Each structure stands twice: as structure tokens, then as C-alpha cells.
Amino acid sequence: xxxxxxxxxxxxxxxxxxxxxxxxxxxxxxxxxxxxxxxxxxxxxxxxxxxxxxxxxxxxxxxxxxxxxxxxxxxxxxxxxx
Length: 82
What we know:
By secondary structure, this protein is mainly α. The protein contains three helices and no strands.
């Protein structure tokens, strides 16, 4: 999971965010790389407007976590009700 450069980190965040829809453990990497890219963009600037890609990875990471927590709660409710 080693990527170099702000642009690569932002794109890795987006990719992990998309993949985390299928594999929830990848949400961690989407969030980690997204926040790392945002920090670097704040320090050095964002001439190519790549900040949106990092934000997308963060958003997809959180959505994946929320989705899988919802599924877990639904499964627990279903098992208790049965």
C-alpha cells in the first residue's frame, strides 16, 4: 500500500474507496490515503484540483463503513427476531 506523490495518494484513496464497497476492510486504506493526500494538499497546494479525488475516496470509505454497519445491525435484528 505504498504510493508516492499527492496525485497518486489521492487516486489510491479513490480506488480503495471503490473497492471497499466489496471488501469493507479496504475502507481503512481509503480513509488513510485520503486524509494523507488532503494533508499534503494543504501543505503544498493543489494545482491540479486533485483534492476532489481524495475527498471522493474519503466519502466512499465512510459510506462503505456505514453500509456494512447497517447490514450488521439488520442481521442482528433479524437473528433476534427469528
